[in-house]
Amino acid sequence: MTDATVLTVLRELIDHGPISRPVLGGAVGLARATVSSSVNDLRRRGLVTEVPGESNGRRGRPTTGLDLDDSNFALAGLEIAVDRVRVAVYSLRGRELLRQEHVVDSEVANPRALLRQAAAVLHETLGRINAEQRELLGVGVSVPGLVDASTGTVKYVPSLGWHDVALQKGVVEALGVDVPVIIDSDANFAVLAERRARLRAGVEGTSIVYLTGTYGISAGIVTGGQVWRGSRGMAGEVGHLILESSGLPCVCGRNGCFETRAGIHALIDAADPSARRSASSPAGLAAAIDHLLARASDGDTSAMAALTDAGTWLGRGSAILAALLDPDVIILGGHYSRLEPWILRPARASLSESLLIAESGMPDLEVSARGVWGATEGAALAVLHRLAAAQQPLP
């Protein structure tokens, strides 16, 4: 079993590298000799390397930093969405090595059939990575729904009609490769990617709420540096918070849910009711978003009004989350990132107006720079977290 101090050092480098040895020792609270021994262990395994640092100000001599080694291993993320499969492969530092996106048959909702398509795309991608002679450490698989991450079972994916699907077992069988497979929701994976990006950029604060902004609204929640799942793994299904008791009908059978005002489908419907039928299919939804963006860019008043209204409701929903969770930041992900020029300002204004004591400080409200690839990046990163948590042996 790997020494706990080695894993402590690895976790610190995952989150904060590159970092100098003295700073690393202070961060993990270990003696210099212990840090040195742990670093040497990780270097022998090909997980950590020395990197050039900044000048320390004494005769211009540069410091030597430590970071994850980008040359030996690969981490794969696979996202199974409603209408497409996304696969990306990353280095240990999160550098994207390759990515592919394939549209799948919209009528394919059968888990086995969809998994076969997803596995074919993943095999093709990994075949290209194998040419670089990198060792694959694992695959994270993202789905847009409720997941029991402890068993790899998908409890419910409304957009695919899946109930109690043993996805981890299915992925392992479909892939036919002997590597660890991790299953979780798109929101939980995406918030991991956001957390790491903020930490590596030196941004303080570890409490984050990430809103998916894809086919529904789900939240990935990080508090105390960990993804918060709740007692039954159901935390984060915020799209069906009721904001208006007598509001618009929702697909869940109730009225006035968050999604009916700020969801992507609701936004498209408000901008152009005639697009409702075409946007009901996944391919039609993607085309409707493109059309909406084009209209807004051309100054179409109805499109811009719908976007402003959706932003306002995003702010109101975010205020509820802020009151419940008090995060440092709320991040709008997925398709919301494409809509930033029109939704972010009204969302921030509405958030401020809806808070009980806005002047005491409110969470930052930002748009993700990762767009629709956030869940895929986070799925790959989860493999690295699994290593650092001693849930699988280090290479």
UniProtKB/TrEMBL annotation:
InterPro entries: ATPase_NBD, HTH_MarR-typ, ROK, WH-like_DNA-bd_sf, WH_DNA-bd_sf. Residues 6-59 form the HTH marR-type domain. Keywords: Kinase, Transferase. It comes from the Bacteria. Coiled coil: none annotated. Pfam families: MarR_2, ROK. One of its GO terms (molecular function) is kinase activity. PANTHER family: BIFUNCTIONAL UDP-N-ACETYLGLUCOSAMINE 2-EPIMERASE_N-ACETYLMANNOSAMINE KINASE, ROK (REPRESSOR, ORF, KINASE) FAMILY. Belongs to the ROK (NagC/XylR) family. This is NBD/HSP70 family sugar kinase/biotin operon repressor. The lineage of its organism: Bacteria, Bacillati, Actinomycetota, Actinomycetes, Propionibacteriales.
